[in-house]
Structures are given as structure tokens and as C-alpha cells.
Specification:
The protein is of the alpha/beta class. Helices cover 27% and strands 16% of the residues. The chain is built from 3 helices and 4 strands. A 4-stranded parallel beta sheet has the order 2-1-3-4, with helices on both faces.
Amino acid sequence: MTDRAPVAVLGIGTDLRGDDGIGPTAAVAVEQQLHATAAPTPVEVVVLDGEPTRLLDAWRGRRLAIVLDAVRAGAEPGTLHRLVGGLDPVPVGGGPASSHHAGLGEAMALGETLDRLPDRLV
């Protein structure tokens, strides 16, 4: 990780599945804001499709990984949820309503087993 930024913003999803594109859309907006500043930033923005092994690679060795993704939580559409890895429960087994075969919860569990989680995950 010598040349990787210590912080990663990971936009998860695809615009091919309707509102599942919010993660990548938000990540691109973050990247545009970062580029608008004159100072260099230690943040890398990455857009991913949500496949768990890609997540493990993207957040491995990071001080902080911020994941932006659409969730089905029974709340009003557009509601923002902030979950902190290790503190808040993250759903596992999205079932047929999930747009990913394995979701963030599964990726976190796998990352913990393989010791491939970032220092902090939001």
C-alpha cells in the first residue's frame, strides 16, 4: 500500500439497476469536489460493482474506507444511514431484494476472517 491513499471513498453499485446507482453517483460527486480544491488530497475514490473480493482489495490497508451504497432498510427512499464497522450491525443475506449476490455485510465478514478490513470502515 505504499503508494495508495490512506483514505478510500468506495461507490458501490451500478446505474443499470435504477437507484442502485446512487453509490457510484455519490462517489463521482465526492471526486469532483476533491478535484475542485487546490490542495492535494490523500483520498482515492473508487467505483465498484459490489463484488466482495473487489471490496476487500479496495479497502485493504486503508486507514479509513467510506462505502457509499444503496440499501433497503424499510425507511423512506432517500434516507441516509451511517453505519460504522464494528459498532453498528450491517445486514447479511440480502435475499432476493438485494441487487448483489453477496452484500456489504458478507464482504465485511469475509474481510474480518481474512484480516483484510481497513482500520476504520464507515
